[in-house]
Design goal:
Shape: globular
Oligomer: single chain
Pfam families: FAD_binding_5 (PF00941)
Radius of gyration: 18 Å
Domain FAD-binding PCMH-type: 1-168
CATH superfamily of the domain at 168-263: CO dehydrogenase flavoprotein, C-terminal domain
CATH architecture of the domain at 168-263: 2-Layer Sandwich
InterPro entries: CO_DH_flav_C, CO_DH_flav_C_dom_sf, Diverse_Substr_Oxidored, FAD-bd_PCMH, FAD-bd_PCMH-like_sf, FAD-bd_PCMH_sub1, FAD-bd_PCMH_sub2, Mopterin_DH_FAD-bd
Strand content: 15-25%
Organism: Acidovorax lacteus
Distance between the termini: 49 Å
Largest sheet: 5 strands, antiparallel
CATH class of the domain at 168-263: Alpha Beta
Low-confidence stretches: none
Protein name: Xanthine dehydrogenase family protein subunit M
Strand order of the largest sheet: 4-5-10-6-7
Mean pLDDT: 96
Length: 264
């Protein structure tokens, strides 16, 4: 690990000022600290967000749930507000990593990192959420750019994410047993505007599947999902699974998601 300086601001404004000056924000540290230990990252200065109380919390605003960036995975999973309004999101949070990871990891940290196999990006994209920063608001469809890359500008901090409440939603995770990341994760949400299907773990970045969305909007049944061909040409292939295998898992997990939602 390289040497670094450490700052612990207690307000969003102070944290943003430090980040703008080149400090590296740290939330739960689940990704940044391991990379620092391996000397893959040399931030120079860490800006610890854990003392910024205003960045954590869960509240309902009209037909949406707003979750602070520093809210822990376990708090999302256990929140009565989230469980009632968006049980698919609570269920997703309940199965991230292990208990230790859920007790430390944060929503904002996961979304800002945009790991190709992380779970939260699929919920943000699948629910059509809005990422709120200290500078602006970014629609989910514009936020995830590529592998570990987002629309965040240098020094820009996520403060909260606003999740519209869907008619119903669910997350189906086929996990890699050692890492507990998603080998393939499928988030399905029924909304007034139609069905959204977001997939993580299968490509270099979370993505929506237009074919599945069109088929399920027209006819919300497992058979409709099964009839959609999943193109493996742009999916990941690695030592854990081939691209063709991931394509098959996307189809199966989507069918299972639809069946589970129809069963209530």
């Amino acid at each position: 690990m390289y040497t670094f300086t450490y700052e612990a601001p207690t307000s969003t404004a102070a944290a943003a000022q430090l980040a703008a000056a080149g400090g590296k924000p740290i939330a739960g540290g689940q990704s940044l600290l391991p990379s620092m230990r391996l000397r893959l990252s040399n931030p120079g200065q860490l800006v610890d967000l854990n003392g910024v109380a205003e960045l954590a919390g869960i509240r309902r605003e009209g037909n949406a749930i707003v979750i602070g960036a520093m809210t822990r995975h376990m708090d999302v999973a256990q929140s009565p507000v989230v469980r009632e309004a968006i049980p698919g999101l609570a269920g997703l949070a309940a199965h991230i990593g292990d208990r230790q990871v859920r007790a430390r990891g944060t929503l904002g940290g996961s979304v800002a990192n945009n790991d190709p196999a992380a779970c939260y990006p699929s919920a943000v994209l699948g629910l059509g959420a809005t990422v709120i920063t200290h500078r602006r608001e970014i629609a989910a469809d514009d936020f995830f750019v590529g592998m570990y890359t987002t629309a965040l500008e240098e020094g820009e901090l996520i403060t909260a994410i606003r999740f519209p409440i869907p008619q119903r939603s669910i997350y189906m995770k086929f996990r890699q047993p050692a890492s507990r990341f998603a080998l393939v994760g499928v988030f399905v949400a029924q909304t007034a505007a139609g069905v959204r299907v977001a997939i993580t773990g299968a490509a270099s970045c979370v993505f929506r599947h237009a074919g599945l969305e069109a088929a399920l909007t027209a006819n919300f049944t497992p058979a409709s999902a099964a009839a959609v061909r999943i193109d493996a040409s742009e999916l990941n292939g690695d030592l854990h699974a081939s691209a063709a295998y991931r394509a098959q898992v996307i189809s199966v997990q989507t069918q299972r998601a639809v069946a589970a939602l129809l069963q209530g």
